[in-house]
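Extended Data, panel c. Modelled sequence:
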Amino acid sequence: MTPLPKLIWRDLLTNRGRVAVSVFAILVSVSLIVWMMGSYDTLVKEFDNDAEAYMGNYDLCLVPEAPRGPLPPGGQPRFADPELAARRLRARRLTARYNGADPEDDELRRETARELLGSVGEGCYLEPPFRCDYGSNISLGDRVYANFNLVILDCARVEIGNDVLIGPNVGIYTAGHPVDPGLRQECLEFALPIAIEDGVWIGGHVAVAPGVRIGRNSVIGAGSVVTRDIPPGVVAAGNPCRVLRPIAERDREFYAGNRRVDGRAETNSRMP
């Protein structure tokens, strides 16, 4: 009785067309497998890049709290670290004092801000209400002005330079959470420092994500979500925030469209 392998070999030799088709099918199958593996790697890299754009490139995880079970009415999360809990409670008491001060009592607000924040330069003012996690991780340069409802989650350092303007309802968030839902359920949190350099103007309703640096004299348009570093001397806006143009010499003469700083409107050369 002829063995099966010999029968197969004899059949292939007598049917050369079948051999060619079989080889072609094998090559196509291998090519598809290689292509699919490469496509998968590309998708993973694109996902990582997108995740970094939204969440920041983080490599530090903290476990600040460990809530178990429903909170009582009006209750606050219980923190595993008593030192963090005490620092947060201190910040809430001081922000309550700052926000509740009489509108004419600037001295009380200045004293409270210096007690609450890590460092405060000359001529700074934060319009109440103002909120923060700890306060001690926030550093303000000279002549910083923030409009109403500034929120700073300062689980990591937040450094704000001199002559910075911040519009209303701005959020500066050093803190974030893992994308994986299981890790979030374990109450994992990461924090990355944020730096806002001298002369920056941040428009209203801007969100600044963990790990971002905004370069000197740059302008961030209202409603932007800043997920990556912004270079110095540019106008940037959008979600995610992107550079639109550099700040040019013309910006010293015109402050909004065709409005001149000296009060005169720009003359259109095409008009009579």
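The domain at 82-259 is CATH 2.160.10.10 (UDP N-Acetylglucosamine Acyltransferase; domain 1). This feature is highlighted in the accompanying rendering.
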